[in-house]
Amino acid sequence: MPAFYPPFVRDCGAAWRARFATLACLGMLALAAGQAHAWSLDDVAGLARQRAQTTFKAASHAVPAELAKLDYDGYRDIRFKPGSTLWRADKPPSGSNFEANFFHVGPNGDSVRIHEISPEGVTLLPYDPAHFSFGNNKLTPQQWGDLGHGGLRAFSNLNSPAYKDELLVFQGASYFRALGARQRYGLSARGLAVDTVGAAKEEFPRFTDFWLEKPAADAKQLTIFALMDSERMTGAYRFDITPGEQTVTQVHARIFMRAGATPVATLGLAPLTSMFFSVKTSPGPAISGPKSTTRTA
Length: 297
Hints:
- The chain is α+β, with helices and mostly antiparallel strands.
- It is 16% helix and 31% strand.
């Protein structure tokens, strides 16, 4: 510290030095606190870049035995409690046009970490069994610890000012999908598609962490950041979702190859997975409606 003291401070003895050191520490703490309130794609890219310098480690899919034994219907019986919905308790003028809730981790153990970005800083939102209803399942979730979450959903006043409809879902690998007004789900998007053709096997990157930016009361779009991991690459993503007649998801992404990774045969940016309203085995009139658009920048 002496190198930072001007001459008059050094001459004033230990008392002045102690006082100056205290003020300097307070200043650094204030600076750190100010930095903690900001979060951007650069921050996520820093994490992705660091991760790309390490050897890939496959995610652990271990879950409690009683959760692993659930069948499809048993898992569907686990539902997020409406009263625990993120941002629902915020009342006007602090309340916003958006809400979010989370999926429970399933029997396959695929989980993500979810954080909230607010003026107070970045906060991890850990798994809490009190936020879920387990239906008819006989389980002991209080003994499970922090499982993380199985994914997330966002809601907005898409079709009515009186009710918040489902707007967007992130669940599984790097899959996500969004809805426009009066629309049903059709296409799903992926953060990245790797070697879907031309290689020995397809590689499935997955989002491991999400950061939800708490929207202001008058916000017209929702911003979500995500960190991606895969065998040969990592990625940082920013999603800006603007709901409406045509919901637009603008995506900013930065991809980092792991050192020594084998070449990628086929790389898909902004890939879409299609589902259809009708097929030959299920006759019926074709259905058309508003579009949900994904833009990559």
